Amino acid sequence: MSATAGQAADGVRSLADRFGIEPGMVVMEMGYDDDVDSDLRDALTDRCGDLVDEDTDEVVDAVLVWYRDGDGDLFELLVDALGPLADNGVVWLLTPKAGREGHVEPSEIAESAPTAGLQQTSTVNAGKDWSGARLVLRRGAKGKK
């Protein structure tokens, strides 16, 4: 596979590229509602196939978590996302951008992610109304009891 595989003809990285989603990956989705970004979902399903829901028994490579202010406890949601996640998997926390209904303060993410055993490595523009925070397991976090 070339370094440009999956990139648009103009050289701009596709949404699936920005999210690191590859063909054959199993991607779980949590928090789906009618306000999610359909372009992002379409780009990801075009790349990896159908998204699985949180009732899956499969080990997943990535979890998309759509989360809005008022959706419940972020820490608990992130812990639930870790259950089926592969050791080298990634959680994409998708939140409404500043000024949009349901915006989540970055301080809430900064507090909840480490408590759940995750660390934020980057953020991406996930669409017109959504931002994505890439969260990965801290070294040794999943195996600890």
TrEMBL record:
Pfam families: DUF3052. InterPro entries: DUF3052. It comes from the Bacteria. Residues 103-124 are annotated as: Disordered. This is DUF3052 domain-containing protein. It comes from Verrucosispora sioxanthis.
